[in-house]
């Protein structure tokens, strides 16, 4: 039987967006927020609700602007991304919190969602009862350049294909001189639909390659079969990554704002595309955090997921106390 949320709807924003949200669990339960990855992912495909005891928790998820079921959708080239920044997403989270009558919540973020969780917690520490980060990122320039270029040292054949496409597509990109992520950002905003489609397919191929270690080898993600999903994902991720996550100054410089907030950081040792260095740096600057490095998993995996469930149980118990 298909599961359905207890409540769901569309939240209108002051600048004309309509944000899809959903709630699971007990209305009187301890509130928790889920922030999906990408940018450009969706809360509808992750099974995030299974990481909580829904008999005790009130879990809220939403599709970030431009993605999933939110409108307007980033797959439409007419949809401007000018109002799609981290600051806008933080305002969306606050608007959702107020609309749903939540005083404070345990904030969960996965991959890119962990960047957004940190940014939100730094902006509104009084609204955050705890933080759980899974596959920790801060979307710094170092991280972006590694995942789009540096990790090519591990996957040279796949990276050569990835870079060659940008060179041959007329972006002016030259290896060793230009940022590859910026070349793909230009391709994914081309007025030519064939150019956008080809770039989104190459981007999707690279996504599957760089997360393959620790995930049982290369597997094509079936989500890429959905043209709208693939186009929106690639367009949004290159938009955010080419702007270093719109974090100025970088998130690591304001970790002191989380000093009174408990946090649990979960990261896979075999996460080649997102090395454990970032998780360690966040932990070092956040005395109230606990760091769990899973030696077997990569950018997610079964034992990491188990740690995720246990982390929520622990922080939600603190919220109930």
From TrEMBL:
The active site is at residues 111, 271, 299. This is Proline iminopeptidase. It comes from Zhihengliuella halotolerans. Belongs to the peptidase S33 family. Its EC number is 3.4.11.5. One of its GO terms (cellular component) is cytoplasm. It catalyses: Release of N-terminal proline from a peptide. The lineage of its organism: Bacteria, Bacillati, Actinomycetota, Actinomycetes, Micrococcales. Residues 33-299 form the AB hydrolase-1 domain. The keyword RNA-binding does not apply. Coiled coil: none annotated. Its main location: cytoplasm. GO terms for molecular function: aminopeptidase activity. Gene3D superfamilies: alpha/beta hydrolase (3.40.50.1820). One of its GO terms (biological process) is proteolysis. Keywords: Aminopeptidase, Cytoplasm, Hydrolase, Protease. It holds the Pfam family Abhydrolase_1. InterPro entries: AB_hydrolase_1, AB_hydrolase_fold, Peptidase_S33, Pro_iminopeptidase. It is found in: Cytoplasm.
């Amino acid at each position: 039987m298909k599961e359905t949320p207890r409540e769901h709807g569309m939240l209108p924003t002051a600048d004309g967006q309509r944000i899809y949200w959903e709630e699971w669990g007990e209305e009187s339960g301890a509130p928790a927020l889920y922030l999906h990855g990408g940018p450009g992912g969706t809360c509808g495909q992750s099974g995030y609700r299974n990481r909580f005891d829904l008999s005790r928790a009130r879990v809220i998820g939403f599709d970030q602007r431009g993605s999933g079921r939110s409108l307007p959708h980033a797959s439409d080239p007419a949809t401007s991304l000018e109002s799609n920044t981290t600051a806008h997403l933080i305002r969306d989270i606050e608007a959702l919190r107020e609309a749903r009558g939540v005083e404070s919540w345990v904030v969960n973020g996965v991959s890119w969602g962990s960047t957004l969780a940190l940014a939100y917690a730094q902006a509104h520490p009084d609204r955050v009862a705890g933080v759980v980060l899974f596959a920790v990122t801060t979307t710094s320039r170092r991280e972006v350049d590694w995942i789009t270029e540096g990790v090519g040292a591990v996957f040279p054949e796949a990276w050569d294909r990835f870079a060659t496409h940008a060179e041959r597509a007329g972006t002016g990109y030259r290896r060793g001189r230009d940022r590859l992520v910026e070349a793909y950002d230009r391709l994914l905003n081309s007025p030519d639909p064939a150019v956008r489609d080809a770039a989104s397919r190459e981007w999707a191929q690279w996504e599957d390659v760089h997360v393959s270690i620790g995930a049982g080898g290369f597997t094509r993600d079936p989500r890429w079969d959905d043209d709208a999903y693939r186009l929106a994902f690639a367009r949004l991720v290159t938009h955010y990554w080419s702007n270093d996550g719109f974090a100025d100054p970088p998130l690591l410089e304001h970790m002191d704002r989380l000093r009174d907030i408990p946090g649990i950081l979960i990261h896979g040792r075999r996460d080649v595309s997102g090395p454990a260095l970032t998780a360690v740096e966040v932990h070092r600057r956040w005395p109230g955090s606990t760091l769990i490095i899973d030696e077997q998993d990569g950018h997610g995996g079964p034992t990491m997921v188990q740690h995720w469930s246990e982390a929520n149980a622990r922080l939600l118990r603190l919220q109930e106390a």
